[in-house]
Amino acid sequence: MKRVHSGKVRDLYETDEGLLLMVASDRISAFDYIMEPDIPDKGAILTQMSLWWFDQLKDVVPNHVAGRGDDSRGVLCRPLKMVQVECVARGYLAGGGLSEYRAGGTVSGVALPAGLEDGSRLPEPIFTPSTKAPQGEHDEPISYEQVVAQVGAETAAELRRITLAVYTRGAEIARERGIIVADTKIELGWDADGVLTLGDEVLTPDSSRFWPVDEWKPGRSQPSFDKQFVRDWLVSPESGWDKDSGNPPPRLPDHIVELTRQRYLEAYERITGASFSG
To answer: What is the pLDDT of residues 97-111, one digit of tens each?
Structure first.
């Protein structure tokens, strides 16, 4: 098949029938760098988890899935014309949202109450879109008004509605299984009939922050079942890396690779209730 795109994690191939085969690799990215080495089984975990979530969300938003690939890392998809906006929902304050809030009391133009801390639960989930930057560049937060200017009022309203609906459903299901979904990013695009459709991945440890309910404590960095674990190691004294130096990050040591794999695996098995079989 013809390869039509390679991203940080996924590769896209075009089939003779006009479908796309999306294959999730075992690559992991952090701070816009693709890390070495790969995380064993990561691609299969992401694909199988997304397929499970697409099924849970099928009454919330249509998705691009047309069938399963020949192995556990691939899925056949209907082509979409992707919206050039990163659609993010936040129910808790962390990461880039926390940095924005500390700088000005807002996240993507949404004013938040004073006194919130790292890991604080927000009064209600909020839509915090960002730009969709080319590979190697940073996404930048944008306001809802900027989304309206880019895609129009009607589409902007649908992006916000769908993003918050996906987050709300996902957070409810995950919490029943002992996991807080602090935030999540989704990709939306128009199908051949002009219907906004969920694509790429959904509610995975790559696209979301997953925290154990019984260990949540605002005011500190939360334990996680996602790639925040890799980010935290990279900025720790153990790694010896300065992310502002312009130098690429160091190779991940074996114990960090294995611990990352374990976190992804636990997220999958806790949420889906299934044993991972590769």
So the answer is: 999 999 999 999 999
